[in-house]
Amino acid sequence: MSDLPPAADPHDAEWSYETAAVQSGIPRGLGQTIGFPIHAAAAFQFDTLEQAQTEFQTNAGLSYARIQNPTVRALESRITTLEGGESTVALASGQAATLTAILSVCRAGDHVVSASSLFGGTTGMLSNILPLMGISATLVDNTPGAIRAAMQENTRLVWAEMISNPAGDVADITAFADIAHQGGALLAIDNTCGGVGYLCRPLDHGADIVAQSLTKWAGGHGSVMGGSVTVGTRHDLTRNPIYTEGGENSVLTVRGDGALAWRQRWFGASQLGMTLAPHSAFLIAQGLETLALRMSRECETALALAQWLQAHPSVGQVSYPGLEDHPFHTQAQKYLSGFGAVLSFEVPDPAAFLSRLRVLRVAPNLGDVRTLVVHPWTTTHGRVPEAARRAAGVTPQTIRMSVGVEALVDLQADIAVGLSNRPTV
Ligand SMILES: *Cc1c(COP(=O)(O)O)cnc(C)c1O
Prior knowledge:
Bound molecules: pyridoxal-5'-phosphate
Low-confidence stretches: none
Radius of gyration: 22 Å
CATH class of the largest domain: Alpha Beta
Number of domains: 2
Order of helices and strands: HHHEHEHEHEHEEEHHHHEHEHEEHEH
């Protein structure tokens, strides 16, 4: 059998983020590659019938690349280290990660409570796709009181984003975890805007599952798609019938402590086939190596831009959790080591603003090294009902910006041109 990297070297967990991001998962030794080798493979060999039989029963090693691949596995172990978790399954997109996280604890008849300040794709999945499978969801304000009031007997999962976009709500993880656990449910946090544990590690604050898009800050260069689901070590599944009923066949009895992670790989990768390609895993692992550098710079620039925009006479409401007037500023200080790279602001004429830009680019991604802007009203939130759009902090004037690594002065100069009365071309 080909070598499968370890799930996560416990030694790596002692490193600080910047060190773990470049060192974890890379073996030392004569002739070892410095980066992750790409294993371009669909299947792996066995020597004996017994090996193959065991592998098909446990899915613990290498057999078929829909289930595991050494390159993907190396990325998974790096993410596990960076998020401070027990194990990770990497998948083809953030959407794949969201679906896998939900299906790992919910089945027909079950219920999800979610904060309503959400990525549009998550709102769509909770409102349109999961009901087709008999899983219902209640979307409420991003506060402990609203989450508690929405809990039902059949609630198996509470969901929130670490930092929502574009509003910049910050999840009160500790409070949400207590509410979920009291109700026998788990707490999942979408940590996409938290940058793979760089701004916050939700598992440290009581979350049970971290789901995220790796397309954004992890990839970091607008060149690859991916997602991941990481589980922590402390989750209690004994009140979820999926894991307990069925006696001898219960997932918990058969899979023990690793039951949740096993089900996520089984559903997301093995059965639904939302597998991450090894070339993508390589690009994401390489992106992670500079995430800390990029994101610390981006947070610094985003704060400077937010303050500058707030003082600009042509700009309306500026929303950024780093600003003292932001409703989640205190919570952001409590949970985050930086205020994130996404901000939003209102301009008088969004169409003219966007058409004048020469540095900022109009594109829907987040976390790119280049600064990207969109008009959420007509694009990312275009399908969301108007009241919900406004509740999410989106007005017809709002521009969302994901700040890149360019020089602050060039971004300011470009925005100034965008806001000027210069004729558009
Ligand atoms: C982009 C995004 C997703 C979905 O990720 P994809 O990789 O685009 O599928 C999920 N959650 C958040 C917060 C996102 O920004």
